[in-house]
């Protein structure tokens, strides 16, 4: 159930609940995608979770998180790692009395910071879980079976295709005349603009962009999220 301002949610005293905290981002996504791409994808996948797991209490989206690697690009808004940590702490601390599990989910980013938060803080009788939409096997499958090449690190084939599924009005589809280039380690300096001035980190030299590709990739993510959630809830 979504915990929304326009929906009455009643919690019973003494009952424990499973919560999901979705965390989006507001960061540049090159010339073809909106700043809120990661937020839109997170919301899409969380909607799938809500339909499958009716008893999970889904908290309102936090639309800013740690995106300092995109500084220098106009429009990017980020929190420092310390602020993000504090936001997660305050939210978890607010609901700990009624929580059994608190799942934190952020598409395509922030997993490392969520893991650091989990290792640093604990709440009695509450388990904090970094919920992930893919693993190495999923990424290999996407590369070999769907993209037929490298999976983009940011704002490339997969994310453009994902957004064609979610809201094609927000997408500019790149033409084959627009050339791509390989950058061995775009995140080497934690400042993407130094390695990829166009804001795109995608080492697949071909544009593999379509709604069909996007749906196939989103289906992989949805399947993994459901499996990870079931694995935690069944324990």
Q: Which terms summarize this structure?
A:
single chain, 235 residues, alpha/beta, Rossmann fold, 2 domains, four-stranded parallel sheet
Tally of individual domains: 2
The number of helical elements comes to 7
What is the C-alpha radius of gyration, as a whole number of Å?
Answer: 18 Å
Strand tally is 4
Write down the secondary-structure element order. Answer: EHEHEHEHHHH
Order of the strands making up the biggest sheet: 2-1-3-4
CATH-level-2 architecture of the largest domain: 3-Layer(aba) Sandwich
- Percent in helix: 25-40%
| Helix-strand makeup class | alpha/beta
Textual characterization of the structure:
This protein has 235 residues and is an alpha/beta fold. The protein folds into two domains: 130 residues, 3-Layer(aba) Sandwich (Rossmann fold); 82 residues, no CATH class. The protein has seven helices and four strands, in the order βαβαβαβαααα. β3, α3 and β4 form a beta-alpha-beta unit. The protein is globular, with a radius of gyration of 18 Å.
Q: How are the elements arranged and paired?
A:
Blueprint: E1 17-22, H1 37-52, E2 57-58, H2 81-95, E3 99-105, H3 111-120, E4 127-131, H4 136-147, H5 157-167, H6 192-195, H7 211-233
Parallel strand pairs: 1-2, 1-3, 3-4
Helix pairs in contact: 1-5, 1-7, 4-7, 5-7
In short:
39% of the residues lie in helices and 9% in strands.
């Amino acid at each position: 159930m979504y915990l929304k301002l326009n929906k009455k949610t009643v919690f019973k005293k003494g009952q424990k609940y499973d919560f999901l905290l979705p965390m989006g981002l507001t960061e540049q996504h090159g010339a073809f995608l909106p700043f809120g791409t990661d937020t839109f994808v997170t919301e899409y996948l969380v909607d799938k979770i809500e339909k499958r797991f009716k008893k999970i209490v889904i908290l309102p989206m936090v639309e800013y998180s740690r995106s300092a690697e995109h500084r220098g690009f106009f429009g990017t808004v980020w929190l420092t790692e310390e602020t993000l940590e504090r936001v997660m702490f305050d939210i978890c601390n607010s609901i700990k009395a009624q929580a059994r599990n608190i799942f934190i989910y952020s598409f395509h980013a922030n997993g490392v910071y969520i893991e650091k938060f989990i290792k640093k803080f604990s709440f009695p009788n509450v388990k904090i879980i970094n919920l992930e939409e893919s693993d190495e096997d999923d990424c290999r499958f996407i590369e070999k079976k769907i993209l037929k090449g490298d999976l983009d690190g940011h704002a490339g084939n997969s994310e453009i295709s994902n957004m064609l599924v979610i809201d094609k009005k927000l997408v500019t589809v790149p033409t084959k005349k627009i050339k791509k280039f390989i950058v061995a380690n775009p995140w080497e300096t934690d400042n993407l603009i130094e390695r990829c001035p166009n804001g795109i980190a995608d080492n697949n030299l071909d544009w593999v962009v379509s709604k069909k590709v996007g749906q196939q990739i989103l289906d992989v993510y949805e399947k993994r999220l459901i499996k990870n959630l079931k694995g935690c809830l069944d324990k």
